[in-house]
Amino acid sequence: MTKQSKDDAIIKVVLEYFYQQNRPYSIVDIFNNLHKEYGKTAINKAVLDLVEEKKLIEKTYGKQKVYVINQASMETVSNDEINEMDKNIANLQNELKTLQSFCGSVESEIKVLGNTLSTEDAIKTSDELTEECAKLEENLKKVKEVAKNVSPKERDEVYLNLKKYVGHWRKRKRMGSEMINCILEGYPKSKKQFYEEVGIETDEDYNVTFPDLTKFNIKT
Question: Where is the Homologous-pairing protein 2 winged helix domain (predicted)?
Answer without folding.
Answer: 12-70
